Hints:
Blueprint (H helix, E strand, L loop, with lengths): L4 E8 L11 E8 L3 H10 L2 H23 L32 H37 L1 H15 L3 H11 L6 H11 L2 H14 L3 H8 L4 H12 L1 H24 L12 H9 L7 H28 L9
Antiparallel strand pairs: 1-2
Helix pairs in contact: 1-12, 2-3, 2-12, 3-4, 3-6, 3-7, 3-10, 3-11, 3-12, 5-6, 8-9, 10-11, 10-12, 11-12
Amino acid sequence: MTTTQAQASAALPAEPGAPGGAPVEREFTVQARSQRQQIIRRFTRGPVGMSGLVVFLVMLAFGFLGPLVYRTDYATQDSGAQSVAPGVQGYPLGSDAIGRDLLAGLMTGVQRSLFIVLLFVVIALPLGLLVGALAGYFGRWVDSVLMRFVDLVLTVPLLVVLIVVASNFPGSRTPLGVGVILGLFGWLDLARIVRSQFLSLREKEYVEAAHALGASNSRIIFKHLIPNALGSLIVWTTLAAATAIILEASLTYLGFGVNDPNATSLGRLVSDGVQATSTRPWLFYFPGITLVIIVLAINLIGDGIRDAFDPSNRRVRS
């Protein structure tokens, strides 16, 4: 019998032709699920996470597959269709003041906003993981130096830091530049989360056993500690991604975000539509609703992942 299988026997009713009509003993095999399989099963059976995932996939398809069907370039300006209402002159969601198609703009905005989020995660996740792992695993002066630096930066609101940096680097007001700025200053919370996880995990028996067997510090960190902190990392990634979209929109609204009209983002579309809310409400509400839907979907995915990694969760059978 392997570690993934268990055998059991049960007394079943007598089969026709059985000697003396005695019950028949049968063996059956039960396939045990690994921890990864249980997590995936809990997530796929949870309505919250799956609802968010379906909505997010729909928004991905809208942003990246939509332009293949709706072949209209957002940069194209139609002087004869300025500020057209939705459904008029072939514009499903209307046009802006210089005749650009808003539906095409939403598709471009979804692409740019998700690109900013991806860039943010690629930069912030390794930085926060590295700093938090070093501080939590080695402790002592390493922990003191790194965490005091994190505390110093956290004393200033993140939005203020981003505004100061963006104002001193005007060339960074592109989707690439905004994503880099968000990534360079968005890892501080993750570092504190990873540190607290490592402070607890490094005292576990399997870590002491790895030390006794002569395992190096890097092997213990990457083979034992990080995999056991994976749940917190994934939850942080989803929630931080939603925060990054909101921060990008806030920066752009304040004039320190994406400023290239042809490389628009959802935040840029919302910022441009604010002034026209009373006369051309479609320019504000459609980008705003799209932004809210994406943020809500990512938050729901994060909640579903958190519930799936929680071993005390019993609402969904594993």
